[in-house]
Design brief:
The chain has about 425 residues and is α/β, with parallel strands linked by helices. It contains 10 helices and 24 strands.
């Protein structure tokens, strides 16, 4: 087995226990094994470990920390006794390195719940769409008992999402600027976490006017303080907003004014435990056909967010769905052309039905296809396993905490082969 590493492998001292019981990790003296910057390391390798205290409880193994470009990871070292020296036989594979944290959104649809039940051992955080708040601060909703039972058995953190009931920019402004709804709303969030064993709450307030940025940040700060005081976390989903101001087109003016401009990432990062950057819906029914999340667009928004959000708080959005553009009966809004979101299995079935060839866009790093129906061209852009893997690689390279994916039930089934089972 080979593992390409640039720099050094640093076997560092750890202090996870004092060696007095079988659950302790025995500390090891620090030692460094260096390699050329571009060398290929073949495993297993031997690293001299002098004077390591260890317990017979562990037999001939000891757990150390190893640092490489992907961070610090725990590895088991097999000990060998050669004369008066002890050597550590370091044995691990690239898949054993720290993996991005996996967060998946789930609706109450059968397909979505079923996907969670089938793949819960590969999901770290589940964010179900169970709660809604109205303009007066009244929260309603509740858990799915089977989902909660399964999550508990498989140690999956459940962090329900809260959305606004029939919120328009004007209604959200009323909700967020009036102090009256805040306290009952926040108290309800704490209550639900306590009653149901949630790890915390995620806010998903979208379609917000840019001038409500400070008011949103204040609500988040107030809510985070109450949740933290009771041992719970607060996350927020944010619309990607690079470069931080509107561009040239009318569409860019509108989307910044009513969608992107309301998120002060620096302020939100200080209050919350996690920011889910919704790097999807780059192209929608409001736009011409294009990728749900093009490569350069994703990179630009990630780089912008990292100016304000620590890596260990940032989750990069990876869509699981696509869009299908087609002609329909003209109306005042769409003039005969529109698009709808489509799950990847459904999209691939559509390609099969019309003998379409799924192609790879090497610029946007995304899969797409087109076909003709009634002499009209229809376009489909999807997040298949190749696209998903490409975005997963971005996360690993940039070293952010993990990814957040909307929505279970729409995914290419092959993506589960890319994700490791949680231990």
């Amino acid at each position: 087995m080979e593992y390409r590493n640039k720099g050094i492998i640093d076997v560092t001292q750890n202090d996870f226990g004092d060696g007095q019981n079988k659950n302790d990790v025995i500390p090891a003296k620090a030692g460094i094994h260096s390699f050329e910057p571009t060398s290929t390391i073949r495993f297993p390798i031997k690293i001299p470990l002098y004077g390591i205290p260890y317990s017979g409880t562990f037999g001939n193994r000891v757990l150390l920390l190893v640092r490489n470009l992907s961070g610090i990871v725990k590895v088991l070292v097999q000990l060998e006794f050669l004369g008066s020296l002890i050597f550590g036989m370091l044995s691990f594979s690239p898949t054993a390195l720290a993996q991005p944290k996996s967060l998946f959104y789930m609706t109450r649809r059968y397909e979505s719940v079923h996907s969670f039940l089938e793949h819960c051992n590969k999901i770290a955080i589940l964010v179900p769409t169970w709660y809604t708040v109205d303009k007066d601060g009244m929260l309603w909703g509740g858990p799915d008992p089977l989902v909660m039972k399964t999550a508990k058995e498989h140690r999956v953190d459940v962090m329900p999402i809260v959305t606004g009931y029939q919120f328009t920019p004007e209604i959200f402004h009323q909700f967020v600027t009036s102090p009256t709804p805040h306290q009952p709303f926040i108290q309800s969030l704490v209550r639900e976490c306590k009653l149901n064993g949630y790890s915390g709450i995620q806010f998903d307030f979208e379609h917000i006017n840019w001038f409500d940025k400070d008011a949103l940040s204040n609500l988040v700060t107030e809510t985070a303080a109450a949740l933290h005081q009771n041992g719970f976390k607060l996350a927020i989903a944010t619309v990607p907003n690079a470069p931080g101001y509107p561009g040239q087109t009318g569409f860019d003016y509108w989307i910044f004014k009513e969608w992107q401009g309301a998120y002060d990432l620096e302020s939100l990062a200080k209050s919350t435990d996690m920011i889910c950057l919704m790097t999807y819906d780059q192209h929608t029914s409001y736009t011409a056909p294009g990728p749900v999340a093009g490569y350069s667009w994703t990179i630009e928004n990630l780089a912008y967010a990292l100016q304000y959000v620590p890596k260990n708080k940032l989750m990069l959005g990876i869509p699981l769905y696509g869009y299908h553009w087609f002609a329909t009966i003209p109306d005042k809004e769409f003039h005969g052309a529109t698009a709808r979101s489509v799950g990847t299995p459904e999209a691939l079935q559509l390609a099969k039905a019309y003998n379409a060839v799924v192609q790879w866009d090497s610029t946007d790093h995304t899969s797409w296809f087109y076909f003709y129906r009634d002499n009209m061209r229809e376009w489909v852009f999807i997040t298949d396993v190749r696209t998903f893997q490409d975005r997963l690689q971005i996360i690993k390279e940039r070293g952010v905490e993990g990814f957040c994916s909307w929505v279970l039930g729409d995914e290419d089934p092959e993506i589960w082969n890319l994700l490791p089972e949680r231990k």
